[in-house]
Amino acid sequence: MPKPEWFQGPLPAFHRKAKRVRKIYYLRNFRNPKECIREINRSGGRPVRILSHLGIIVGEFINQQGARSLEGHPDVAHWEFDSRVRITDPFAGEITDQTRDQLPWGVQDVGAYKVWPYTKGRGVKVAVIDTGIANDHPAIRKNYAGGVNILSPMFTPYDYNGHGTHVAGTIAGSAAELSVMGVAPRVRIYAVKAFNRRGSANLSDLLSAINWCIENEIDVVNMSFGMSNVSDSLRQAIQTAHRRGLTMVAAAGNQGVAGPTDYPARFEETIGVTSVSRNGTLSSFSNTGKGVDLAAPGEKIASAWLNETTREMSGTSMAVPHVAGACSLLIYLKPDLSPDQLRSLFIESAGTIRNTREYGKLNAYRAAQSLAHYMGRFIP
């Protein structure tokens, strides 16, 4: 194995059975990264991720003692231990060859089909940070544009769980014969695989995924996951992506609580989304409270699944792609829309929810009409 130029001395030896500890370092203005890498090496660790767009280095150590390196270092603004994040959904229906509705009820409910004569999101770049995407699914393959496997970079970001494929189908599905149509059926969909087949990811994997999205100039980032504990590193990553103009849409969570929502939806830089049912009320599993900007269909949503099938799923994870798709529809009409302008358009044009007045329900049709009016155009 060749040594990179910044290695001094022998490569650190790692015992396969030893428990490894990962630590995330956020550097001040990404100053002196080589010095920080050398310090990690001197402590018996190794740098496993260098995320230049985020100013973050991830180091791996074989024990807690070595992981104490760089504490108090003048170039380190803050640090935290790596942690686990999981995808959870309260309902998964049966797998079928075709959905019951000719057009998914969520796509109908948000009025997306009414603006398809004017915009289908053509060419807008949407990344799904998830379990990957089954790019051979007939509803997705025409719009699939590639991606990255954060977990195993030498492999494709194929989905062996199903969650990411379901989300992608709601955004970019384009198979009328299977009744799988997405909100924006002409976008370019990218798979950013950060979660394994069990629906689990490291925080450092999510940071790497966001770094990839910045590097590849993604327009909209779908984040159908959440965590209850705040992460300073994730906050910094979200803020950096927001400053770069990436629109990030995140799930409020599925605990059915009225208190604070999950992160990253709770960060003000994201569009936080909770779920409504087919009858227009908040779903029983929906988190509500601080961090929620909007509600969207998320209950018994039929979309693409593994092995070229379809499946009904419920969760705020299913609500998020309706908003991500709607973002794409508007960005096609006006490519320089900022994330905050998109949020305002959706909030101002939102429909009512039967059992709450705290926020409204996504209406992509009204949002497109409002944007067209602002631009001096007309969508009837």
Automatic annotation (TrEMBL):
The active site is at 130 (charge relay system), 163 (charge relay system), 317 (charge relay system). Pfam families: Peptidase_S8. This is Subtilase family protein. Belongs to the peptidase S8 family. Keywords: Hydrolase, Metal-binding, Protease, Serine protease. CDD domains: Peptidases_S8_Subtilisin_subset (cd07477). Residues 121-360 form the Peptidase S8/S53 domain. GO terms for molecular function: metal ion binding; serine-type endopeptidase activity. GO terms for biological process: proteolysis.
